[in-house]
Amino acid sequence: MDAGYVLRRLPVALFAGLVSSGCVVAAAGAGAGAGIYYTSQGVESVVDASVDATFAAAERAFRHFEIEQTSMKVEEGGAKRELEGKSESADVDVKVKFERQGESTYIEVTARESLVEWDKDFARAIVAKIVELAH
Fold first, then answer.
1. Which CA distances in Å does 85 have to 21, 23, 42, 96?
2. Third-level CATH fold of 22-134
3. Of 79, 20, 92, 76, which Cα lies nearest the Cα of 52?
4. pTM
5. Are strands 67-75 and 42-47 parallel, antiparallel or unpaired?
């Protein structure tokens, strides 16, 4: 096999690996380089904003989607945070995790409908709103 053949096939192999592991780019988000990615239970993204700005945006997104905040955790001096809530209209439990990554913030959102079911569309809508409001 020549090197050119391998290099041409590498992107296909990498994409196939991502698909089989459940990590596929779903849609581009607002902001430079931001993407929204589906996980096995929800959605994740990196927001080009501080943890403080991203957390404030998540609280506004909770109000926008009428999610009642039920708990909040702060660790590592605020560099890691978690926000949980309950949505009556969508009948889901929502969890938002934040973690500083340099000047950006990694977020993960899950919207759990039952012990074994998650509403990834609702989680994606929450992430998109957080990304929009954080800028």
1. 28, 25, 15, 9
2. TATA-Binding Protein (3.30.310)
3. 79
4. 0.73
5. unpaired
Q: From residue 89, how far is each of 75, 99, 114, 129 by CA, in Å?
A: 30, 28, 15, 17
Measured in whole angstroms, how far is the alpha carbon of residue 73 from the centre of its chain?
17
Are the beta carbons of 104 and 46 closer than 8 angstroms? yes
> Structure tokens of 124?
């994606």
Angle at 82 between CA 130 and CA 106, to 5 degrees: 50
Among residues of the chain, what percentage have pLDDT more than 90? 50
Query: Are 130 and 47 contacting, i.e. CB atoms less than 8 angstroms apart?
Result: yes
Question: pLDDT truncated to tens, each residue of the chain (135 aa)?
Answer: 555 544 444 444 444 444 444 444 443 333 444 689 999 999 999 999 999 999 999 999 999 999 999 999 998 888 899 999 998 877 677 888 898 888 899 999 999 988 899 999 999 999 999 999 998
Residues 6+ apart with CB under 8 A from 135: 30, 31, 48, 49
What pLDDT, on the 0 to 100 scale, is given for residue 91? 67
